[in-house]
Write a structure and sequence with these properties.
mainly alpha; MetI-like fold; 77% helix
Length: 259
């Protein structure tokens, strides 16, 4: 005979989670020496500062548009360089294709090194050695994100069924032929999706690299903030946000079509 009574409701431990969250917050504040009292008392200064950005000045919108196009160009050519690096090193970093252990380890460590060095640091190095302008930004984005594309591409090549590689190798294909006729055609869609994602990411980062002198709209934004031209800075920020949103939606749309 079965009972008609319902099982008891599970106990809610919301207060335990709240206590745990409060404890973690206290530990973070103590470890990082965050003073919440100073933050609370300084809210008026924070509000007053952000109020300076309330009147954007679009009088030089043509100049801002040209700078935004330069920023997109930096991201584009940086992505082209990153694609070239990833395309060249990925077959050697792929376990399924690499011709030897030494080449595999060399390619893999090279990609790890490129990913490990932040693009902002690379931009500072190239600006110091080359000078101000778009070229340091292109090189910084290209080398850093080339490490990511190389890793993504090599993992995609590893997921190709080994039967394709074995079949083309059985008819006498050498290493370049196995890469070009069995490897890349099998991962073309993934390759395009990863490249679009990196381009989307590079558009955002190219504006940040401009703050250290690597050209584009970021350099102009840095100058306006340094001269306290908040109205012009607001216009530049809005230009940047609108462009990033547009490219993000376009990139998402293209990647969805590729899938």
């Amino acid at each position: 005979m079965t009972s008609d009574t319902l099982p008891p409701k599970p106990k809610r431990f919301l207060w335990i989670w709240l206590l745990f969250a409060a404890l973690v917050l206290i530990l973070i504040a103590r470890n990082l020496e965050i003073n919440f009292t100073t933050l609370i008392w300084g809210y008026q200064d924070i509000i007053e500062y952000f109020s300076r950005y309330g009147r954007p000045d679009f009088s030089e919108w043509r100049h801002y548009s040209a700078l935004m196009l330069q920023t997109i160009a930096i991201a584009f050519w940086g992505t082209v360089l990153a694609f070239a690096i990833g395309f060249a090193l990925a077959p050697f970093a792929s376990l399924a294709l690499t011709p030897g252990k030494i080449s595999h380890q060399t390619a893999r460590e090279t990609l790890n090194f490129l990913r490990a060095v932040p693009d902002l640091m690379l931009a500072l190095i190239f600006v110091s050695s080359i000078g101000l302008g778009p070229l340091p930004g292109i090189l910084a984005l290209g080398f850093h994100t080339g490490g990511f594309l190389g890793k993504f591409f090599s993992e995609s090549l590893d997921r190709v069924p080994h039967g394709k590689y074995d079949a083309i190798a059985a008819v006498g294909a050498n290493f370049p032929q196995r890469v070009m006729f069995a490897g890349w055609p099998s991962v073309m869609r993934e390759t395009a999706g990863y490249t679009l994602y990196i381009f989307d990411r590079n558009v955002r980062m190219s504006s940040v690299l401009g703050l250290v002198g690597a050209g584009g709209i970021g350099l102009e934004l840095h100058d306006t903030l340094r001269l306290f031209n908040y109205n012009q800075a607001t216009a530049l920020i809005l230009f940047l946000i609108g462009t990033i949103f547009s490219i993000d939606y376009l990139s998402t749309f293209v990647r969805s079509k590729l899938k």
